[in-house]
Amino acid sequence: MDRNETDHLHIEQRGLARFFYAISIAILLGFILYVARGILIPLVIAMFLSFIIVTLKTAIRRIPVLGKLLPEFIAYILSFAVIALVLITLGQIITANAGAIIKAGPAYQERLIAILDQIKTFLESLPFFTDWFESNVDVDSLRAEDGSITTAEGVSALITQFQQQLLGFISGIASEIGQAIRSLAQNLVTILLYTSFMLIERGALLRKVGIVAGMQEDQLDISQIINDIGDLVRQYISIKTLMGLTTATFSFIIMTILGIDFAGFWALLIFALGYIPIIGAISGVMLPSILALVQPDGGGVPLFLLTLGLLTAAEQTVSSVIEPRLMGRSLNLSPLIILLSLTVWGSLWGFAGMLLCVPITVSLMIVCTQFQDTRPVAVLLSDNGEISPIKRLARKEQAEGN
User: Fold this and answer.
1) Nearest to residue 304, comparing CAs of 315, 293, 317?
2) Domain coordinates of the chain in residue numbers?
3) I need a labelling partner for 383 at 20 to 30 A (CA). Which of 55, 125, 126, 260 fits?
4) pLDDT one-digit tens code per residue, 371-381
């Protein structure tokens, strides 16, 4: 074997080794993120809350006359107090409404059973349904012990199965959301403590990270990298919050006019689900629409269709018309990557992971752009393949130009 073939073989071996090394690191990180989720989720939420508080502090300092007179630490305290008050108030409202919904649950279940009975009666009245049922439905799994089955019994069995599956689906979603709310309420004090200490240590932490970066041969512009992350995350959270409030307000007005039960609770849920890409909007529209279908007083198919149509129109107006004009393409995240990150973080951290998937992925992409070995990862995460230059290289080029 000549030298060129040997070098080529070594290159292939190194490439294969790096591939398996990266896979091993990814599996290890996934395991750590899953096992330590009880510690990491409050910490990450606190980090993003600190971004929001800094944004709110900046807004307070820009208030004419009064803002300039306020010391910076007073502006921080006011911002922290506003966020804490909002979180506590939302928690109390959601908890109170969730209890009322649970108490009203049996009435909604009875209404659902009545609607399914109406569907069964309607299907049996169709002249062609008996022939269709016997030719298209596997009746073997529906037969009685004596082996006989009538069309009516078969339809009843299918309706019962559908009812159980639908109730199981709704219960699963409610359980997941309830668990996330309980977890957030239980960790609220911890999150606020983390947030307060992050704000106190913010300047010192930036200096220490800068010192660590300065120990490398090519210094990274850490402050600029963190500013980039902060700017994008703050922009994303601010616009999503504004759009969520707009959608929730429109939805609350629509549901109040239509007489949907617990309109305030559903509006808050629509606001919270607005932070979850793709499935958040779908869930936010479908859940109150399903409630309209089974609502004991005045519910039914017409109310379901009307609620579904109006809520969808409100959500699409905000998310497809208003939000793109404000957000633009500043995040530069591929839609496929957003969907994958939603799946991955949802699997690791549940409902909290779905809420945080976009800010985490944006932060990851910005960090990956600053290291030569991980820039290909940033390109794959991006939407258009264009990523920012490495900050240290930009600084060196400027120095050489001077």
Assistant:
1) 293
2) 1-35, 40-200, 218-402
3) 55
4) 777 888 888 88
